[in-house]
């Protein structure tokens, strides 16, 4: 749009349906190519809600307020639909509606499995690092070298944890 305002002649019609101006609102919510995907995923009500938003920031705010599973599904849909749009733009074959819906459900399931928000029980069971006792000196090292320059030292990183021994006389304080 900004380029067009500068006098450069561009075809700004939707690359999927070739009918209307391709802005985000059209491409993601109104295009005849994307509507069956929202319907097939049974989230048509959310499409209608997002279509009423006033600009991209409002769309993002609405998506972020959705329940976690729905939010992940919408993100998967928008991401995959943008890929489909680009395939069309490069004359590559697109997924069928059924293939697309399968991809979104699979992506959503995978993302949910790996990015579930931490529950209270999982956070309390995570072991935490603690300082070793006073009589222990702990030295961590890490290093690497290139196979072909085995004799050359590439880098080494070391960390030292040395407990501080303190003796406090009665009547004095540690500063
Ligand atoms: Zn379109």
From TrEMBL:
<protein>
    <recommendedName>
        <fullName>Reverse transcriptase zinc-binding domain-containing protein</fullName>
    </recommendedName>
</protein>
